[in-house]
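Below is how a single chain appears once it has passed through the pipeline. First comes the sequence as given, then the structure the pipeline wrote out for it. We keep one example in the README because the format questions we get most often are answered faster by looking than by reading.
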Amino acid sequence: MSLAAWQARLQSHFEGLRQQRPPDTPIFGLEHGLDPSDLDELEDAVRNHIAQSRPSIAHSLAWVVYASEFGYRYAGDEYWQTFEQCTPGWETRGDRYWIRRCFRDFCDRFGGARPSGPWADHFSIICWPITHAILPRDLQRHLARILYDLRDAFTAEIIGSAYQLGQHIAAASWNASSRFQDFAQQPILVGQIATALLFQDQQLAGTLILPSTLQRIATDLDQERAARTWLKTARGAAGQLQFWGLRGRGGPATGPRVDGYEWGEQVKRTPIEPRLVLRPASDSSWTALLETPDLTPLLLRFPHLRDALTGSRCTVAGSTRSPLARGRVLYGTQRVVLEVWPNPDEVLLRFEHAPPELEYLLKTECLLRPGPTWLFRIQTDGCAYEVRSKVVRPGESYILLSSAGPIQACELGAAASVECQRVYAARLDLPVTVSGPWQELIETLGLQQARSLRVWPVGLPAADWDGEGRGEWLVSDRPRIGIRVDHAVDSILLSLDGAEPQGIEVESADSDATAFVELPDLLPGSHTLSVTIRPAQAELGDESGQLDLIIREPRTWAPARSRQSPLVVVVDPPVPSLEQLWEGAVRIDIHGPVGHSIACSSSLFEKSADLPFVRKALPCMELPVDTASWTRHFQEHLRENPEVQSAYDRAQACQIDFDGAELGAFSLRCEREFTPLRWIAQRKGTRYTLTLMDDTGSDTSVQVARYAFGAPDTPIPVDLSTVSYPLEVPDVSGLYVARVDQHHSGVVIPPQVRNLDVLCADAQLQDIARSSDAIEKALVPLEHWSDARIPGDALALTLRQRVVKALLQHIFAVICGEQWDRAERATRPENSAELPESLELLARAISAEPQDQWFVANLEWEYVDLAADTINERITRLWLLVINYLSVPSRRTVEPQHVELTGRWLTELALRLASCPESARYWSQGKLRAGLHWLLQVPVLARAVRFLVLAIDAYLQPQPLASGRLYNGWEWDPLPTTLAVDADVAVHEWSAEDSPDFLRSKLDTGKWQ
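Resulting structure:
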């Protein structure tokens, strides 16, 4: 059959499909309705035509179907390369932009699906065939797993809206592959596909996707047992809902308003209050712990908070330890040791760059219960859990904490201490019969004695019960409670969430009787059940109690991720790329029984392969394993292995398997980054070949430049018209950078020469004028080197880091002056003597002025303490030193700027430039030049931040340095997609009335007025 005949057949098919399909439901190119033999015949006709003639718009539907089929088989690596290999003649007669025109014409004529979201903007051509492939094979398993994880969160409202279902899938995809996260950026289309899969056997599915196409996808899903089981379970959960049909495609709902926060009902349905726990440290000493909540419900309720919850580390108030790993708050509750008792108004959980909605939620829900006393009951596991009602029972043991000073528990209380500053402890072991002295003590301490009313869960066990009036149930459960009184009552009244007490009434009960009550189905969130007892003897008066009920969605079990697992593996970032794993930019901590052995192996996979082509067993490790130990282990046994280095460049994914035998197992799969513009480096013997993959769809031609190791800041243009792919790289090593529009990609190719003298030779760098414009331009090559990917050769890692450090030192030599440059060169590891002497030399170079010596001395005294602080704490403490320094009258040299900045912002910019310069431009959001001008005005401060970075790096030198960062101790959180920078404050012009106290008051507000 000719292409013209195929065009007519497809046109008739899609016109009929358009008439059957609801107006707001799109059509996909994969819905061609052809059986396998017809499809083979169509593809042969397309190939025969392109082998002889250029493609014609008269055959556009045949090309739409042809390209969509390649999209269905696409695995996230090389669309056009595979397309060209399977379509002889396309390279000379085809046109990518013509394919995009075919899809756009298809959408105009038949109401086809239109790609949307950031992914579609970046991949402006291949987004069309991949979108019209509906659900490419490599994404099917991910969607089935996410639908399984979301099954208990399904409601008729969610299932009935394609947009809402798509939003929930996008929110839950935070730990899926980057390819699936890109796919999920189209919530309406994703929701439509998911709804069709969930209701495949119902008439509804046929109105969403052609039944034969839907059956094809389902058949491919069924080929994997796990995916088949996940989808079957999710269908069962969705089928239990009363479903009246898809309520339109919908669109982005109006987000919660910051002013007024008219979304209180959603907040109530998202309980995120932390819990206090005491763990015994010795016979009379206790360790204070904060049990952070699982924030997964928050992610599902407010999908737009995803970037903050998954991309930022969580800092816990009162803890001086490292922040929680990114995404850790989404793997169930976590327990964090408190070294300092938080203030009553201090938010317990904080995220970097949190949006206003998240800050509001945390300020509302993540605070300590009002003090100054907190009561804890010692339970059978030896730990003490907070009793929020402050009610004590005879025969029980308690720990009482107070932030108001030592507790006066007279002779009845026992001595106790807590390993936490700003709080005091006492132990109370109540007798079975509470006598007069005990009653007086209980009243004095502000506690209450339990009455004759007892309430507890019965039937199916609660997910959590503290024994004192607070319990958790799953949304799939129906809570049942028992109520017991030890005296005759007239009635027991129950009131749920403030309803009138007549809601549920239990008639008269005899003395010491028990009543059982089943509560109605409850929505997720916090609920309160009030219990009122009316005694048979009216003169005794009513008694009342309260039960706090938390209803939450079930948590999907994640092996080795939950705190309750015997083996816990913490990975940061939670879904690292293959490049991040190889370059040492992944933090891995493994927790379990001390001394237990854990086996580890690594497997490398090629594109679309189910079996690895290289598998290597690593030596066993003993628990616990921290990030430093893992980094050394990975580098020594994997990254420096010649066989693995050769195979790395072929690999599309790497899987690390941890096997703890009876403790359990954990697998970490890392796939290559998927970017619109990327280099593919392949090793052939001792040489490399390079291929540039351009999926941007831009009309602008690609510009390529090379930077040599000997001149890393001098670009050498590469004329692509004179080379053929793959590009041979025999002896011309260095950095290759490709750029088109706003996209750029770099790759570092190591030299064949391994002579250490050659590798250690100083690079020849261009002179930089002492101006903010010149320094900003000098940062460009540094950013290219920092962002460039690395092939398998481990030497490339060392050389890239060496080049970036050389460029950064050259820039700071211009800012700080020649004397500082000489001192920094003298303190290089290969030049310096012992650590104290070399740092003392560096400190003296900060300033020789007598009035600056206190400032220099403070830096020398505090850098060891600062090494243990978080980066945010370092910024604050350094800025406090800075404002004291700038308050000296002789240092009032800062000129006012037209760009408005905050002092803390400037301090962070300086620290970023000195430790992670590649992040400064994006973080500064257009204010980099103004910040550089400020640093040039006060070079002493530039030297101070540089000293602090080098000193902390030298102090932590025994720790292995991850290749993902330049200096030890300076691992910044990844930058969010959008970053709000405070621009309401001007750079301060120092005046005579400035004083340290005055400046500190300005620091409290974070602004200069």
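The chain has 36 helices and 35 strands.

See the next section for the split statistics.
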